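Recap from last week: sequence in, structure out.
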Amino acid sequence: MFTGHVLCGVTPESATYNDSTNTVTIAFSENISSTDVLLGRISISDPSNSYTLTGGTLPDSNYYTDTLEINLVYGTVIDQLVQTLFGASQTVELWGNTTVQVDEIESFGMDNLLIHFEAGAFLDTAFSQSDSVTLPLSTSHFDNPAILSCSYSATHNTLQFVFDRPVQFDQIAEDRSVDGGPGDGSLDPQVGNNDPGEDRNDNDALDTEPNVSPFKIGIGDVAGNAVSLEGAKYIAQVADNDTIDLRLTINDAKRLETTLILDSMNLNLSEGAFRDTLYNMVATSSIAVSTTPDSLPLVADSAKYDYAKN
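Predicted structure tokens:
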């Protein structure tokens, strides 16, 4: 039995986690401030693990409510790099959304979760602090995004993935943080030799996070041969889409076309290779890969040997 004794203020009465929207919804005994929330005083656990929140997305404006939603995906500095800006070398911080705590919590036993609120996590309308309480955390479970089909074009060295909903195209963090906070959300162009701009992967679009992980994509064949991708040359899409065209690196294309039986390939996709627009990981899957062979395969028509150069 889980009980909480109100000492001086409002008390959380129930909590639910939605694993599709990544939000915790908390119901209270009376109204609380929507922004006077100390997230570091909230932790989620199962019988073997515990995680104290490191952040979260709260409502943009302050108001009083008896129901509060906290999105566990939140913006922060997720990467940094050294750039030369107007002749001076600077360490530039890059802003994006982090899913670290969502990924951690969703690795727990989702049917046996508890949520603990330390005293003072919330303030009521009289600015009284909430009491400490531990409650069951029920979970609203929804299906993960899934891949529907995969094809390979040997002519273009491109894998095409089709999903049941839009997924994110981003491969890298690019949005430069402003004074340790969010970036401006737009792609800053190159300014001569003074500023290299933000387009680190030259796709003319602002990537926000590494939401595509080629290292979690593998291709096999019926003979048991397998190739794991070492990266991606580029992704054709520059906006979220239910179809992603991934151009292989020269080395990956060479390994795939010389190692595997092209007309009997299968995709081995690990969880997290792609994420949908709500940052849910595409589920692990293994499906057949259809192949379009080279339209004009190369055929050697002559050869010569140079004795001097061996």
